[in-house]
Amino acid sequence: MVDPTLAEMGKNLNEAMKMLEDNQRKAEEENEKKYTRKDIPGPLQGSGQDMVSILQLVQNLMHGDEEEESMQSYRLQNVGEQGHMALLGHSLAAYISVLDRERLRKLTTRILSDTTLWLCRLFRFENGSAYFHEDDREGLLKVCRLVIHSHYEDYTAEGFNVLYSKQPMIYISSAARAGLGQSLCNQLGLPLSCMCRVPCNTMFGSQHQMDVAFLDRLIKEDIESGKLPILLVANAGTPGAGHTDKLGRLKELCEQHGMWLHVEGVNLATLALGYVSSSVLAATKCNSMTLTLGPWLGLPAVPAVTLYRHEDPSLSLAAGLTSSQAVEKLRALPLWLSLQYLGHDGIVERIKHASQLSQRLLENLKNQDFIKTSVEDELSSPVVVFRFSPELPHLDQLLRAGQGPMIIGNERYVCDTFNQWLGEQLAQLVPASGVDVVELEDEGTCVRFSPLMTSAVLGTEVQDVDQLVDCLKMKVPVLTCTLQLRDEFEQEVKRTVGLSYVEDISWPGLGVVRYEGQNEDKQEEKEVEKITGALLRKLNELESDLSFSLGPEFGGEKNCIYIGMVTEDLDVAELVETIAATGREIEENSRLLENMTEIVRKGIQEAQVQLQKANEERLLEEGLLRQIPVVGSVLNWFSPFHALPKGRTFDLTAGSLESTEPTYVSKVQGTGVTPPPTPTSGRAKQRFPGQKMFKRSLKGSDGLSETSSVSHTDDLGRGEPQPGISSAGQENPEPPEESAHLTKDMGEDSTGETVQTLGNDCTKSQGQESLR
Question: Where are the compositionally biased (Polar residues) regions (predicted)?
Fold first, then answer.
């Protein structure tokens, strides 16, 4: 028998435990709900989204807002049918990866072997193997590891200790792409001392080709110091100018010292053509090469390919050039599909078309004045590099005067700035051409046209090249005139009082000017900034073809007016005088407003004192009885008191306080004193209808033609010219108006109490300055 009390206690305990467990379970569920609502990102909450919503999100991310699209121009890839085949390859690769292992192995082996064979035959690289990779530097990295494994047999077991005893040396050209050597050292775990940069030719041959004799001396010095040269990276088309190294001599040098020769560059694409230059054809004898077929053939998201020759498959596997994973072999599937779709004729046609485009541009540039080209072969060059190079007739005088190096350096920097502007303008006006700006060590800033890298993607045609040449012919005269007028503008600004010339050789335009003001005392920065902003607005309102701005967003001088490109018919003296006169006008108006504020304040105080005095005099004249409410009304009814209202008028022109009695007597306000008109620019000249400002008549022209607007952007938002602006940028006198008055009268209400009223009638006299 169980004690009833104990049984009751056990029952109550079970119920209590159940209640506690239920409460704890509810708390955990609530916490889980709170965690789901707060911490899970919005797109992942709930049971997922439908396919339409996800695709709509992707579309919005790709195209962005319509406003952003209208402000910026994007280079959209020309994805043709061959591009769709490449995109299909990525989808098929994901689908094929779920097949059973044996079937997947057979399929990937077939795809890899076919693609390797086709590429070796197309680019004349016999008996080679292929490694497909996403990053175009990854192939060279794997080749370096292969070479290290080949030269150091115990590298797999001992690692760094083997390299420490005999340091490996890798040689790259100084014209190679930036950061290549450092990237290789970081990935291989080697010190930067293992990387040697070989300079280019300085006296003989192309200045973008590797100096073979200097390389030979470097290799011999490294061998004497106990180092081991293992690899040389050469270029068949340097990243900047597109020049090809002397691959034949480099191959002989590598065989002499037992080194591996790797070649990369855009000119390797021409190996697929029927005729190949001997300098590029020598690349077929190298040990490895990297091909970037995506931009060459217009194939989106296809991998780069590194072709190499090596007999030991185990070392290739150790270096990562081959893989036992079948899924990694599917990288070749997009190329496998695209190459079959294009065929040999389609591949050759695209590469040949790009070569013809560069040749057409090169032929047009030969007859262009002030344009200097930097190409390796005048007859056939896949990459065309050119720059604006003005003639400097005063260069000999500067050299004889001993000022040559500094002046030449400045003019070189100015030319680089102008070429930067030229490249940006051409890329904006002809986006299908694919031109870009490149920095070369010897030539400086240049414009590069590399159709092998851009034409298949952008769909560049012959008419695009012709349009590029036409735009270049329009821009070169503008660059020449602007460069010639910069010195005249500088001298004119230095002769003008109130202006200072700011030297900014990084600005592509006529020059930079700052308005200093008429006061000798240094003005506050806020006041100068305010005057400069107002001056910029006034200049942009003028009917001219010039562009005025505050300069670049970053790195520019403060409180300055930057003037853009100009044409040969610019009247520099009129421009400078207009800037000075407009600045003086703005400064005087600002000072007039400050002075007027003080005068008005003092005038009001004086008027209050005089009106208070007049009020006391009126009380004495009316008497005490008239001030009593009831008695005063009766007295005024029996014996009205007539007195003229006494007030004060404040003339803004004269700055004087006068009585209003003549106004009430004659019922007409006085006109006050007429101030002299605002002085205008002394060079204000009569312009013909339709003629823009700052234009001078040229010989053989009637002075009525309008020149095209030259600015840093195509559409420079300018407001319509404000009324009252003369040809020199000054304000014409305003229409005559009445003089300004501040009237304060004394009056009496119906109860007999004295009431003061302030009449604020502020108008302007004839020819008076407007207050802004």
Answer: 752-772
